[in-house]
Amino acid sequence: MKNVKSRLNINDYLVKPGKKTRLKDFETSYKGNTLTKEESVKLLEKGVKELAITQDKLYAHNQYSILIILQAMDAAGKDGAVKHIMSGFNPLGVKVYSFKAPNAAELDHDFFWRHELALPARGEIAIHNRSHYENVLVTKVHPEFIMKEMIPGIDSVKKIDKKFWENRFKQIRRFEKNLTDNGMIVLKFFLNVSKKEQKKRFLERVDDATKNWKFSLADLKERGFWDDYQKAYEEAMNETSTESAPWFVIPADDKWYARLSIAYVIYKEFEKLKLSYPKVNEAQLAELQKAKANLLAEDGGKGGEKKKPKVKK
Length: 313
Hints:
Helix content: 40-55%
CATH architecture: 3-Layer(aba) Sandwich
Strand order of the largest sheet: 1-6-5-2-4-3
Order of helices and strands: EHEHEHHEHHEHHHEHH
Number of helices: 11
Number of strands: 6
Largest sheet: 6 strands, mixed
Distance between the termini: 62 Å
């Protein structure tokens, strides 16, 4: 994705650690003039192939793992981003999880539990479509949901105060620090869609029979809390964007641009690892040569399959 370098600046998307950021300072659509949709699609196709090669090295290297978190308002394009960006990856090394409202069994554990079960092993990539951040987003807008968690000492919504949220953000930072300290690369993306574009996509889902299944009246209800969600996202990103687990705010009104941007950020983070295929030492190389000699000896040393004797008629 080297051709993208001069077109995109990762720092434009980064929520700088320790610096208070306002969501309204980030664009929701592509404002540049150096990329077209057609060119972006071609660049993404090439980028996907490059990411696939890097994933193969990650799998062979077996030291690091990658956790990609996608968060957004409804209809921002998370599913499409997963489909297009990850299409070239080997499915054996990638796991995609989409988290809904927690069920009874999940509520009987701490809020990290179900997400911990979905973490990638070394050499793997995991994509979380929604994540543990729902516990400082949806629950921040609807604090009554916290009551279902049966947390000791929290027996009324009134006790879910500023200190409660500060402690929860602290838990998240500690959780992610533990992951990164043990070789996991954590990349967090917020697909920044405008309220106007969300309305357009909701209407498309209503009018298009092939998209009816995507629309829910619950989505429309949550749209009524738009400002509350924007504030919750802003606070969550400011509190949890760190050097080791940064947040990136991606313009999402133009799906083609959002997909290319996410792919480029992932590629640049891969690049920092300087991954390569494992090299064998002299003893292992000698074993390989010995194995080769044994394999060749099976067919008389000619390196090919033995020819079947001709049968005289």
